[in-house]
Amino acid sequence: MTLTEYAPAKINLALHVRERLPNGYHILDTIFAFIADGDRLTATASDNCSMNIVGPFSKGLPVNDDNLVLEAAKALAKAAHIDANVHFTLTKNLPIASGIGGGSADAAAALRLCNSLWGLDWPLEKLCEIGLALGADVPVCIASSSCHGTGIGEQLVPISAGQWQNMPILLINPLKPVSTGQIFGQWDKQDKGVFEGPVNELESVAKGRNDLQPMAISLCPEIALILEQLSQSNPICARMSGSGATCFALFADDEACVQAEEQIKSVFPDYWTLTSRLHDWDFGRER
């Protein structure tokens, strides 16, 4: 039996950093959203735990014990007291180390797949507990739906009827990986305040910020150039996602989104771009 799951890209519509904890994690106030595109993961019963990686961004992604997909399968198997007998094929469509949760989304997809493949049928909450040990963004990627995240990003409150649902979005990445640890390590430790306003309103999102953006720009100046170019396309909102280097812009209609991509490609022909839509997947939840 072969099962397939999508691993949609995660977007931080706003990312307010509040405090650094002694363990190196940070207290956050963030709005998570997801898009209709991402990586794809398939799982097949096997006599061991293995994987292969294909797709446009497969090069340079290791297949070893540090791979989050394999880590996720082994963590779930350990919790269930069974052998991690599964073979994965990951189609890597998203840039690596790009601030849109690619690795976390892949790990979340692995947890959902193995949960089904092995007949565990564990609830999402239990998968989230296992996922948190793999990374702070893994729990929100399990359901892949809009959430207001606090704590280190693991305290999640679903956002119903977010005004951004199905809204066109443009993603741009200069294909220059940045280190999440290095970006957070350079945070200026200035608490600039919580996310203000109703969490499901676009106006509140547009007034938000990404507190990691200045640090990321210092390491990857291309981010500032992308955002400057995006500002000329009259977006509803444009900023960096996560720790970068992917930037995004929201638009009122498809035509404006496509025109913005064409303009970006004319200025930065070698950058990765993707036009998509914001979309709540609600994996594993009853509808």
What would your notes on this structure say?
The chain has helices at residues 68-80, 102-117, 124-132, 138-143, 180-185, 202-207, 213-219, 222-231, 254-267, and strands at residues 2-20, 26-45, 49-54, 86-91, 147-150, 155-158, 168-173, 237-240, 247-250, 272-277. With 287 residues, the protein is α+β, with helices and mostly antiparallel strands. It has two domains: 2-158, Ribosomal Protein S5, domain 2, CATH 3.30.230; 168-277, Alpha-Beta Plaits (2-Layer Sandwich). Helix 1 (68-80) runs parallel beside helix 2. The two termini are 26 Å apart.
Brief summary of the model shown:
With 287 residues, the protein is α+β, with helices and mostly antiparallel strands. The protein is 30% helix and 28% strand.
Number of strands: 10
Give the biggest sheet.
6 strands, mixed
The CATH class of the largest domain is identified as Alpha Beta
Question: What proportion strand?
Answer: 25-35%
The computed structural class is: alpha+beta
